[in-house]
Structures are given as C-alpha cells and as structure tokens.
Amino acid sequence: MNAAQDTAPVIAVEGLTRTYRLGGGEIAALRGVSFTVEAGEMIALMGPSGSGKSTLMHLLGCLDTPSGGRYWLQGRDVTGLSGRERAAIRNRQIGFVFQTFNLLARQTALQNVALPLRYGGARRDATRRAGEALARVGLADRLAHRPSELSGGQRQRVAIARALVAAPAIILADEPTGNLDSRTGADILDLLAALNRDEGRTIILVTHDAQVAARASRLLTLFDGHLRESGAPEEAAR
Ligand code: ADP
Ligand code: MG
Description:
Layout: H1 3-7, E1 11-22, E2 25-37, E3 42-46, H2 53-60, E4 68-73, E5 76-77, H3 83-93, E6 94-97, H4 109-120, H5 123-136, H6 152-164, E7 170-174, H7 182-199, E8 202-206, H8 210-214, E9 218-223, E10 226-230, H9 234-237
Parallel strand pairs: 3-8, 3-9, 6-7, 7-8
Antiparallel strand pairs: 1-2, 1-4, 4-5, 9-10
Helix pairs in contact: 4-5, 4-6, 5-6, 6-7
The structure holds adenosine-5'-diphosphate and magnesium ion.
Adenosine-5'-diphosphate is lined by residues 20, 22, 27, 29, 47, 49-55.
C-alpha cells in the first residue's frame, strides 16, 4: 500500500447511481450519491423502505456494480472491477452482516467463520483465527454448533465473527437486528458499538431505530435514492 492509499478515506463514492432493469421498465434505486467515510467512523444509514439502503450497501460491499459514478475503497478505484476481482476485495477488505445471517446450514460455527480465510488462501491459521473471532463475539463455547443449534442472536454473532475474521477495513451491516427480538438486537448493537469503540473498526449500519442511530458518530439518510447527511445523529433520537 502506498502513501496516498494510507491517507485516503476508507470509502469515497462520487455520483453513485444504480438503475435496475425490470420487465420493460427501469427503477432508479440510487440517483447520484456522494460521501466519504474515514477510518474509525461508525455511520448509521437510515431511510424509508425502498429508499436504496440495501442497494447502496451492496455496492459498498462489492456485491454489485454501479450503473454510474465512482467508488474508491482505501484509495483504490474499485468501480469497474471484474466479478473475480470484487470477490477478492470482499474477502480481504469487507465484512458483511446481513439481516438473515446467511450462514451455511451444514457447517459449524467454526467452519462458517473460517470460510473467508479459506477463500483468501490463509489456510494454516484459519481455524485458530476463526476461534479467536468467535471468542471475541462471546461464542467460544459454541464452536462445533451448526446454525440450527444456535439462537437467532447467536447466529448473528457467528455472522459478525465471520465479518471480522479477515480483519477487513470496513464492516457493513444491513439491518443486522431486523430478525431479532429487541433485547437480542440491543446486544448485537452493543457488540458492534464495542468493535467500533474498542478496536476502531469502521462500521456502516443500516437501521430503522433512531436510538441506534444516536449511538453512531454520523447519520446518513436516503430518500428515494438521494442522500441527506446530518452531522448530529442525536437529533434523530429526540
Ligand atoms: P431499502 O433497502 O432502502 O429498502 P432497496 O435498496 O432494497 O431499498 O431498494 C431500492 C429500490 O430498488 C426499491 O424500489 C426496490 O424495489 C428496487 N430494487 C431493489 N433491488 C432490486 C432488484 N434486484 N431488481 C429490481 N429492483 C430492485
Ligand atoms: Mg434494505
């Protein structure tokens, strides 16, 4: 990594658009979104259903490519990369946490968490590092459990451990508490907040909960594919 990349924002996007073609028509899900994210930030992304939050998260997570605009991840232009190149970036630089956990049902917690390391080629230490990540999320005693043998909150902890294990530049969490009861959801948010506060992990979190947003360092809100930034997330919680 060169000096320019060292000082670059973790994320910079400029004029990002995403248009879905569906049947004969087009849906403009993102209509030109620009912002930067610095290392160590915890950003809450809010907005009504259908406003483009998941679309943006998929673009930031290199799960999808934009229709227009540019995206720099840690100073590198990743806008036009091939599927294979995007997969490599997902493995090393991005941890994604989904509302529906997205764990492999037949694999143990340990195997699920080790998966990104196996794709990344760091085979030798994969098991040890997966165990450490599971310990970090409070699941040191559940390594051999399969998802069906875990509670919803525990499954999301496994997913967070999987997102952490490759020490990515950024963790993207799209409504990570959406399928959890409020008590369990609060625990998961505490965990994400602790990862940000104690380990300086950069996090972008989609949430509908203004109380959650109030704990973020910055609030971004999408309305119909346009971004509105507010520097004071506590405003939203009042
Ligand atoms: P949010 O996460 O804020 O609820 P989404 O990003 O999922 O919003 O969706 C934004 C808009 O794009 C919506 O109108 C949705 O119907 C549309 N959309 C999302 N994904 C697709 C897709 N794969 N194909 C067509 N339209 C889509
Ligand atoms: Mg969504």
